[in-house]
Every structure is written in C-alpha cells, then in structure tokens.
Design a protein that fits this description.
By secondary structure, this protein is α/β, with parallel strands linked by helices. Among the domains are: 161 residues, Isoleucyl-tRNA Synthetase, Domain 1, CATH 1.10.730.10; 214 residues, Isoleucyl-tRNA Synthetase, domain 2; 62 residues, Ubiquitin-like (UB roll), CATH 3.10.20. It is 36% helix and 19% strand. The protein has 30 helices and 35 strands. The strands form 12 sheets. It has a 4-stranded parallel sheet, covered by helices on one side. Strands 8-7-11-21 form a 4-stranded antiparallel sheet. Strand 24 and strand 25 form a beta hairpin. Helix 22 packs across helix 23. It binds one RNA strand of 87 nucleotides through helix 9, strand 13, strand 17, helix 14 and strand 29. Its EC number is 6.1.1.4. It is found in: Cytoplasm. One of its GO terms (biological process) is leucyl-tRNA aminoacylation.
Length: 882
RNA sequence: GCCGGAGUGGCGGAAUUGGCAGACGCGCUGGAUUCAAAAUCCAGUGCCCGCAAGGGCGUGUGGGUUCGAGUCCCACCUCCGGUACCA
C-alpha cells in the first residue's frame, strides 16, 4: 500500500509549509549570519500558464536556497509577477472587462502552479507590478530620475537643485532657463516616431508591425512623430560598461552588454564650410576647439582619423539640420525628394534595404582641415542621425560602406594606407589603385608629413595635432541610445507628471511633477477600452476630474502616456526586501543588509535590455543615495532553453508543448524538478524527453523503497534499516556522496549531483542492511532537489519537524575516498595493466606497485627505460625502447 | 559580416590543473520473480575483427605540442543564440 505516491505527499507538505510559514525570510539576517539572496526573473503571467521553461531556473535557485538554509544562512527567496502587458489590454479592448480582472486571474493560475512545484518562496513577499502600492514606488523612482541631472565632470547623477544655470542661459530669461534645466534631466521629453495605424486607431509596438502593415488586420501603418518621455541612459554608458568588471557574469553575457553599449573611440573633426579657410584656421588655432560646432563647420566623427587624407567625399544623414543649408538650388528638388523618402522608411526598412546604397549630392563642398582640399558633401541614409554627429567623412579606400557608395556614384578612391605584409603584392597593388577596399591597419602614405606612421601612432599624433590647432579632438561614442520610456497604452504605470494649461486650455509647455505625497497616481476609470481613434494615448479618454487637476488655482492636464513594461521589472528586487513599506521604496537598513542579489537566474532573452535598464536605474538610485551598492546583481546565470521532444523550439503551432500540470499529474512535482535538473547543465539548450522523467521517477521510487517498507499496510520503516554502525564501504559511499553533492550544488552542477545520489541509492539497494546513519544524511542531501519526498521520508524515519532547517550533512575527507585506488599502468602510452595502491600512496610506492605487476615486468624487462612518469593517484607510464 | 556558445555511443549527458573517454540516466539485450503480465530485482551494452583469449579503431575535420590531448596551439567545417550600414 504505501508505495511512493507523490499525488498524496506533495499537497500534504505544501500545505504544511504554507501553514507553518516555513520559508518566511527574516527582516534582516541575524548578527553575524551569512545571507543569501537568490532571485528568479519573475514571470509575465500569461494566459497560457506556466511553461516547462519556468521551473528550470526556479528549481535551480530553489535548490540553492534550500541548501543554504540548511547551511545556516539567512535566505531571501521571493517571487512575484511582471503583470503589466499588452495581452491583458487587448483582451480588455475586446471584452470591455478591466485588464486588472484577467491579470489577477492569470496571477492566481501562476501562483497555484508555482506552489504545486514546491518552491520555497516566502509568499508573504509576493508583489505584482500592477499593484497600486507597488507602482506608487515605480512612480516615485521616476520622480527621482526626473529630479536628477548627470554631472559629466563627476560622472554621477545629482539633484537638479544642484544644477547651476550658466550665465548665458540665465540671461535669456526665466522661461528659457527653465527649459534648459528640463533638458538636463535624466527624464526628459522629446519627439520620437511612433507606428500610427489609422485603421485600428491606435499606436502599435514595433513587434506589432510587419512589413509596414499592422500584425492584426494588415492595415497600413505610418510613422509619425509624437511627444514622448525619454530616459538619459546614455549618460551612464561609460559606467554601465566599466562596472561589468565588478560582476560575476559569464563573459558571453558581458560581451552582449558591451556590444549593445558599443563604445568606440576616435576623433571629432570640423570641416570648414565657409569662404576663407585660412582665416578660419588661424582663428581656430587661437580660440581652440569649440564644444558646440558653429554654423561655419560640418562636424564629423571618425574612428579612423589616420585616414583623413583619404576623405574624398562627405555624407550627412537625411535628417541632418544642415541638409537644407548645404543644398544648392539646382539640387534642391532631388535632395528634398530623397529626404522625404528616407523619412517614410522605418529603421527596419533602412537596414533591410541596406544592400544597395542610395544618396544624392547636395552641390556643396567642405574643406578638409588637414590639406585644404574641397570635399563634396552628399546626403545618404547609410549615415544615421542618431549616431556620432550624423555626418561622416567618407574614406572609400579604407571603409567598406564608403567604398560601395563611391563605386556606385563614381567618386574618387584615394588609398592612404599601405597594407601590411600579410597581404599579397598583387592584392596590395589593387588596394593602392583604389580597386579593392582595405580596412585593417598599416602604414600611412599620401598623407603629407604623416607618411610612414603606423596606424596606431598616426591616430594619436593627429588627434593631438588637431586638438592643438582647434580643429578636432579625441572623442568617444556609444551605440547605446536614450531609452524611449513612454507608451501609448492604458495598461501601464501613469506618469506622475502634470502639464500646465493656460486660460484657453492649451499647454504652456511647463510641466510639474506630482508631489510625492500625492502618489500613487492610479489609473482612471474608463467606460471601455476601445481606441479613441487619435494618436494620443488612450488615457485621453479619462474622465475630466482625473485628467484636469487644479492646484493652487492653476489648471493642469495629466500626462497620458504610460510607462513601458520594463519599468516595473527595473527595481522589483529591491521591493521584495521590504514589500509592505508605506514610507519608502525600501528601508535603507534592510537594503544594505540584503543587497546585492547573490544569484540571479533567468532566460537569456533578458541578457541585454532588462539587465541594462535595471542596472541603469540602480546606478541612479545609488547616486541619489537610495541604495548602497553600485551594482544590483552580483552573479547572473542564464538557464538554457528547453526544446520539445522533436528537438524544436516548443510552440503551440509545432504541437510539442509540454505542460507542467500534466507532468506533475503523472509523475509528481519532485520528478519534474529532478528531471529538469538532470537533463543537463543549467545553461545548456536541451530537448525534453518523457522517458527521462520516468527515469528520475524511478530513482525516487528506489529511494522510497530504501526507507519505506512497501509491503506493509501502513507507512512503516523498511525492515533492513538498522541502528548498526556503517561498514567501511558504506561509510565511504556516504561520505563520497556528501562531498560530491555539496560541491556540485555550490558549482550549480545539479545534473552530476543527482547522478551521485543515484549511485548512492544503487549501492545501498544492494546492501542487506542499511544503517540509519547513512540513510538520514542521504535524505537531507536529496531534500533541496525533491523536497516533498524528502520531508515524507524524514517523517518516516521518525522525525517530527520539517527538515528545512536541519544541519547540512558534513563529510570527513579521509572517508570521502576509497581506501585503495586502481591506477592504470601504461607502457609507451598504452594502458597495459591496472594495479591497486592505497589511497595517498606516494611516487615510490606507486612505481614499485607498477613494476611488481607481472605483465608490466614482462613488457619492460630487458628494454631501455627512456622515461618514467609517475603521477600518484593517477597513472604510471613507462616509456621504453628496444 | 561581426560577437558569443557548442560539436563526445542509438539518445540526454559525464570526465578537477593535460593523466583509465563514455559516470549517471534513457533505450536495447538477457536473466530472476510470476500461472501470466505489470511492477521490482540482477547482469550486459562505444564501434570493428574474433568462438574465445586478444587485437584494432574511437570525442566535427586536418595539422601541431607532449611520455600522454575530449581538454593546449594553428587552420578549417557544421549547428545554435545575439547583432547588424554605429563611421
């Protein structure tokens, strides 16, 4: 009767843990107690429920946490929900039901499924980003961003109150100064293009637009500029890149982030576009290089200032402010058309059509500051307005894109780099003739006084010379863009921002922040969620009393954009520490006690954006004294993807989705947990295999039978469990297992830890008697992986309380190895015999043992011993001749 | 193109710092138990030759270093993930 039956014991122990709040985390770790904060990337509660990918990472952190508790650490292990999101809003539009209703249903499903898997979360800390009391503090953090400017010199964010308004700005009047200050904030307004779909009457997210048509319905989508909120993440680019050094993340993830930040170093150079080049040059030599480019120059950015002499044309982006000025009347029509066409293209179109370069000549020229030569200026969309200065010098001989463009438009190609010796003479000739592009370093030619300099030295020298002449300077650029932080959606956090209105109800252009004491700004009641047909956000439909507050007799309009889904996930790890605090986002003492997150596990799809955004917010909060450490996530691990049984990505359309509910029903949560850990390394991509689940289920059954007498009518201890002292072999098996499992858990090598426990069970299944002193520690070792069966077995073994806080088994080094080891003896590198030597035998003992083997003696007898390698505990190798 | 990761039995995977390749599991084969089956237990299982003893081959490919290479070096191939005109 008492067969292993997870359907009975799992709900029983889950209820026990719930009722006893077994896994409640302390407010702070006790004095002198080590802490462990393990965080899972909280899920978006989709209508489909939990996916088998979720429990993978969640089980890994749960094992770490359960082991850490048994090792005496204070453990923080919370869970919550990233619950704002498009699907709930779409459902609301269709049905008229408030998105909160469906969101909460989905959360209930997720919570039930998570509890069903036996994770040791402190559920009293559960938060959802859609909780008003949570997003109150998301709004509060936005206000910190709004109240912060970035001091370039000190490289840190400071309160806007500490920003000194320069004289030349103050002179322009209060209004001007106020706008100037607003432009320095980390949260600022700007015009940015959105995907407006007139037919649907709504703005679409990028992923809802396919080939310029709406995903739903296939209606045309146009790009139009809209007032938006931006966050100045670019100010922190340098620190976001540099501080990666502090983190215990895989090199791959760090590289991904570095790549995204995209730091490059080079030079800015001004090309004169006026009449008297010599006079300009003389004045620049005196005045130096101005911070802002004047109207008399075209400022470019290049990473290859050593190719300045090879600049045969220039390109400005279609959106460059000088386009009109630089276009001569005879080119006006063509340039105008070109820029218009470019504006219509989405970013995607621009890059997808990248194969064929396009552009038009403006009719104007700039002067190359190093040699006074006239260089024609073109407009082309392969130059992006959002990077560098939006203008380049084109060096077709040494840049692939410029080369392609020059060939197409028949622009001269002037080589200025002699290729290195690794290039064949014939190829070098073609390069020098401008027939082939060469982008690697080399030696300067056709570069006046710089001829003969190597690329690296040239770069340094010319940067210094340009700087001395006031013509340029060293410069750094980042690919990272400022963060478009507003969405035209209902189901998101409202911005705590008010726009001042004049008497006619028009915006004056001034905005004020909602007072902290007036937070949260809750979402208004709407009659329905249907689009109102204008590009403005849906909150424009809100009732007057929400939309138009009056403060001190001044009427305001609330900001109607909402925040993107990223916002809530940027700081949830802080709120978990102090989820009920009504006075602060997180208590500083508590924050200090628990941060940073010691282990953060989640999918690689968040390797760039989520982690970059969260790190950015954290740094701002750090600068403003809200948190105590520069980085939030000390160690990061990305779990690998789980594929379907056919080795393809799991998806409904492929029909290969595995539902955790079904697996639990058939095998139990412990088997699901164990299987997901046994499949392979946590970080690897691996296919599902139901027979594998049955394999670990079988193992749990064997472990069960080791302790429980299956043939008894009631739950009873197996008859061969004794209080006898373990035999030497039994003790060694136990201690080896403890050592291996302990070390494997520390190294996140769960698959091998499970293999070691299987070996333990295989060994003891064959023993006539099983000492309690062996099986009890084993149950404790098993408990982080398969907690329900472990609790039940612990109970059967006669213990009253949960094993969650039992001391982790210790091993004795001398017992954690075999008494003697068998080592291979090689002759000329081939294994010819195996000899047994005592563990820890030294070199001489090992060698004589090898020599005394009959077969070895025969093989080496009478031959010259050329070399002898003896590695104690490993092998012996006789290298002989003759 | 660039960046990152990975290629090991029929399958998932293991192998500390260069030291017995294939732990553990699945699958397969045989056996015990059973009237029979399920369940359970035991044994075997990289490939090739051989009745066997034994021998040969073997970690994507080709070279190299070494007494010894899955592991280190060089050149390449394939697959997966990310990214893409970033000057």
């Amino acid at each position: 009767m008492p067969r292993y039956n997870p359907a009975v014991i799992e709900p029983k122990w889950q209820a026990f843990w719930d009722q006893n709040k077994t896994f409640a985390a302390p407010t702070k770790p006790a004095e002198g107690q080590a802490k462990f904060y393990a965080l899972d990337m909280f899920p978006y509660p989709s209508g489909n429920g939990l996916h088998v990918g979720h429990p993978e990472g969640y089980t890994a952190t749960d094992i770490m946490c359960r082991a850490a508790r048994m090792q005496g650490k204070a453990v923080m292990h919370p869970m919550g929900f990233d619950s704002f999101g498009l699907p709930a809003e779409e459902h609301a539009i269709k049905t008229g039901e408030h998105p909160r209703v469906q969101t909460e249903q989905n959360i209930d499903t997720f919570r039930r499924q998570l509890k069903m898997l036996g994770f040791s979360y402190d559920w009293d800390r559960e938060i959802a980003t859609t909780d008003v009391e949570y997003f109150r503090w998301t709004q509060w953090i936005f206000l910190q961003l709004y109240d912060t400017w970035f001091d370039e010199r000190e490289q840190r964010g400071r309160s806007i109150g500490e920003l000194e308004v320069p004289e030349h700005v103050a002179e322009m009047g209060d209004d001007f100064a106020r706008t100037w200050v607003d432009e320095q904030r980390l949260a600022f307004q700007s015009e940015a293009p959105v995907n407006w779909c007139p037919a649907l009457g709504t703005v679409l997210a990028n992923e809802e637009v396919i080939d310029g048509k709406s995903e739903r319905g296939g209606h045309p989508v146009v790009r139009m500029p809209l007032r938006q909120w931006m966050l100045r993440i670019t100010a922190y680019a340098e620190r976001l890149e540099k501080d990666l050094e502090l983190l215990d993340w895989s090199e791959g993830i760090k590289a991904l982030q570095r790549n995204w930040i995209g730091k490059s170093t080079g030079a800015e150079v001004d090309f004169f576009i006026g009449d008297d080049f010599e006079a300009w040059k003389t004045s620049r030599a005196k005045s130096g290089y101005p911070k802002k480019a004047g109207a008399d120059v075209l400022r470019i950015y290049t990473t290859r200032p050593d190719t300045l002499y090879g600049a045969t044309y220039m390109v400005i982006a279609p959106e460059h402010p000088y386009v009109e000025r630089l276009t001569t009347s005879e080119n006006a029509e063509e340039v105008g058309k070109y820029c218009e066409a470019a504006a219509m293209k989405s970013d995607l179109d621009r890059t997808e059509l990248a194969k064929d370069k396009t552009g038009v000549f403006t009719g104007s020229y700039a002067v190359n500051p190093v040699n006074g030569e006239q260089v024609p200026i073109w407009v082309a969309d392969y130059v992006l307005i959002s990077y560098g200065t939006g203008a380049i010098m084109a060096v077709p001989a040494h840049d692939e894109r410029d080369f392609e463009f020059a060939e197409k438009f028949d622009i001269p190609i002037q080589a200025v780099i002699q290729p290195g010796k690794h290039i064949a003479d014939e190829d070098a000739k073609k390069i020098l003739a401008g027939k082939v592009v060469y982008t690697e370093p080399g030696v300067a030619i056709n570069s006046g006084e710089y001829d003969g300099l190597k690329t690296d030295g040239f770069k340094k020298k010319i940067a210094a010379d340009l700087s001395a002449g006031g013509l340029g300077r060293e410069a750094v650029n980042y690919k990272l863009r400022d963060w478009l932080f507003s969405r035209q959606r209902f189901w998101g956090e409202p911005f705590p921002i008010l726009h001042e209105l004049d008497e006619d109800g028009n915006k004056t252009g001034h905005v004020i922040a909602v007072d902290e004491s007036d937070l949260p700004v809750d979402l208004p009641h709407l009659e329905d969620f249907k689009p109102h047909g204008r590009p403005e956000p849906p909150l424009d439909k809100a009732p007057e009393e929400w939309l138009y507050p009056v403060i001190d007799g001044v009427k305001y309009k609330r900001e109607t954009n909402t925040m993107p889904q990223w916002a809530g996930s940027c700081w949830y790890y802080l709120r978990f520490l102090d989820p009920k605090n009504g006075e602060a986002a997180v208590d500083p003492e508590i924050e200090k006690a628990w941060m940073p997150v010691d282990l953060y596990v989640g999918g690689a799809e968040h390797a760039v954006l989520h982690l970059l955004y969260a790190r950015f917010w954290h740094k701002v909060l750090y600068d403003r004294g809200v948190v105590s450490m520069p980085e939030p996530f000390q160690k990061l691990v990305n779990q690998g993807m789980i594929l379907g049984e056919n080795n393809e990505k799991m998806s409904k359309s492929r029909g290969n989705v595995i539902n955790p509910d079904d697996v639990v029903k058939e095998y139990g949560a412990d088997s699901l947990r164990l299987y997901e850990m046994f499949m392979g390394p946590l970080e690897a991509t691996k296919p599902w295999n139901m027979q594998g689940v049955s394999g670990v289920y079988n193992f749990l059954g064997r472990a069960w039978r080791l302790v429980v007498d299956e043939r008894a009518d009631k739950l009873a201890l197996a008859g061969n469990i004794t209080d006898a002292e373990p035999t030497d072999a039994q003790a060694r098996t136990l201690h080896k297992t403890i050592k291996a499992v302990t070390e494997d858990i520390a190294g996140l090598s769960f698959n091998t830890a499970i293999a070691r426990m299987m070996e333990f069970v295989n060994f003891f299944t064959k023993q006539k008697e099983v000492p309690r002193a062996c099986v009890e520690p084993f149950v404790l070792l098993l408990s982080p992986f398969a907690p329900h069966i472990a609790e039940e077995l612990w109970h059967v073994l006669g213990h009253r309380d949960t094993l969650a806080y039992e001391a982790w088994p210790a091993f004795e080094a001398s017992l954690a190895q075999d008494e003697s080891v068998e080592i291979p003896v090689q002759v000329n590198g081939k294994v010819k015999a195996k000899v047994s030597v005592p563990a820890g035998a030294d070199k001489d003992a090992t060698e004589s043992a090898a020599r005394s083997d009959a077969k070895v003696a025969e093989l080496i007898g009478g031959k010259d011993l050329v070399k002898l390698i003896v590695v104690p505990g490993k092998l012996v190798n006789f290298v002989v001749k003759g």
